[in-house]
């Protein structure tokens, strides 16, 4: 085999039609009448999907190993096979009304990189691997991102094995039933760097007319419950000046949840702040009673923990001011928090450089949704490549992507992996 260093990276391209054909063939397993895919984790259909992908991997000369949570690793040796592998992948389980591309694209793009290197007769210095993580979607079994989560030590193998579906079947039994309860201990598998290609699952790339999203990280999330307490009173006899109307104060604070998201851009001026009130309850919820109490949810997100902290302080200060002005009590109680996960600068740069070499329009992007790459970023330098999906729609049978974008994202993946693997 030829040494990669002798070649100009910029001339290398994957085979787009072959990748597209593989995506369409995998999508026939669990195909729904509306053009989507229903292939829930660890069902017989998931087993058939796994069988097809691993058959393709073996046909491409890859070595297939499976760990005890059913993660599948498909390996192409390097010139120095003792180096930690450069890994790519995603998941092939879907939502009940899932699409053809979510997850499947990341796995099959990795396989296409391997097939392309076979065509070119190229061997990399470090080994390359494609991974299919178990149960990313969390639809049949919780928690979500189960395979990568166990691999990264976020929760234990025993916890994952004991998770049950609505019929009481366990993950461990279902892994056994489809033949994917492997021998390898999850996590005892070195990773040199990790890349994941994925449809954006949102509308930003399409809105900007860009082909490649250079994903800089995954948003941090803060959830709160807020309670505004006033005093119920009759809507007729109580003059306006003598009311303690909890809803009027609550709606002013709700407006500030949204405004807060606009107030916290990154240092470079880009704003990934998000503020959402999604649930509201009004007591006593009666037409002719001044509301005495309002409870509502607050969901704040931003690109770094520091920005999430700043939004936290902002909304608390606004609430304190509103409480002082109105004389009503306002409490904000944290419910849960997920740290922001910035991706490694080297991986982000590798994706950006590849997109530029290939002449694709690109922009920085953040992920508002979780991905297996979030857990991998705890273990190794990691990065993600987004491509647009039609109307930003995902987790839906009508999820669609442009074959040219599918091909472009895979070309970026090829170059980014080769840059890391040498
Ligand atoms: Zn996905």
Automatic annotation (TrEMBL):
It holds the Pfam family Peptidase_M20. InterPro entries: Amidase_Cbmase, Bact_exopeptidase_dim_dom, Peptidase_M20, Peptidase_M20_dimer. GO terms for molecular function: hydrolase activity. The keyword Methyltransferase does not apply. Residues 218-321 form the Peptidase M20 dimerisation domain. Keywords: Hydrolase. Belongs to the peptidase M20 family. This is Zn-dependent hydrolase. It comes from Pseudaquabacterium rugosum.
């Amino acid at each position: 085999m030829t040494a990669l260093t002798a070649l100009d990276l910029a001339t290398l391209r994957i085979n787009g039609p072959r990748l597209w054909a593989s995506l369409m063939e995998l999508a026939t397993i669990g195909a729904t009448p509306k053009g989507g895919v229903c292939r829930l984790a660890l069902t017989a259909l998931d087993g058939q999907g796994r069988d097809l992908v691993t058959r393709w991997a073996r046909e491409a000369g890859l070595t297939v190993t499976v760990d005890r949570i059913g993660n599948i690793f498909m390996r192409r040796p390097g010139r120095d096979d003792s180096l930690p592998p450069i890994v790519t992948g995603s998941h092939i389980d879907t939502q009940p009304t899932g699409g053809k591309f979510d997850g499947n694209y990341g796995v099959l793009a990795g396989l296409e990189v391997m097939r392309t290197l076979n065509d070119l007769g190229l061997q990399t210095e470090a080994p390359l691997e494609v991974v299919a993580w178990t149960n990313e979607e969390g639809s049949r079994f919780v928690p979500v991102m189960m395979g990568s989560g166990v691999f990264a030590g976020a929760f234990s193998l025993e916890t994952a094995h004991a998770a049950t579906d609505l019929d009481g079947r366990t993950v461990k039994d279902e892994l056994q039933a489809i033949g994917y309860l492997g021998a390898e201990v999850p996590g005892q598998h070195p990773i040199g760097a990790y890349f994941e290609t994925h449809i954006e699952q949102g509308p930003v790339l399409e809105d900007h007319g860009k082909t490649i999203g250079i994903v800089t990280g995954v948003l941090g999330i803060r959830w709160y419950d807020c309670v505004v307490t006033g005093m119920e009173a009759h809507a007729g006899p109580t003059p306006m000046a003598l009311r303690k109307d909890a809803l009027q104060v609550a709606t002013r604070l709700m407006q500030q949840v949204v405004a807060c998201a606009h107030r916290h851009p990154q240092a470079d001026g880009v704003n990934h702040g998000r503020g959402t009130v999604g649930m509201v309850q009004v007591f006593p919820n009666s037409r002719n009673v001044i509301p005495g109490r309002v409870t509502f949810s607050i969901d704040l997100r931003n690109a770094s923990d520091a920005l999430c902290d700043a939004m936290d302080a902002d909304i608390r200060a606004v609430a304190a001011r509103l409480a002082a002005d109105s004389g009503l009590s306002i409490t904000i109680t944290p419910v849960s928090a997920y740290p922001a996960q910035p991706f490694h600068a080297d991986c982000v740069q590798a994706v950006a450089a590849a997109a530029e070499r290939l002449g694709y329009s690109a922009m920085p992007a953040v992920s508002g949704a979780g991905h297996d790459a979030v857990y991998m970023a705890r273990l190794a330098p990691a990065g993600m490549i987004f491509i647009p999906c039609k109307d930003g729609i995902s987790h839906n049978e009508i999820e669609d992507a442009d074959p040219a974008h599918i091909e472009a994202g895979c070309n970026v993946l090829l170059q980014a992996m080769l840059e890391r693997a040498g």
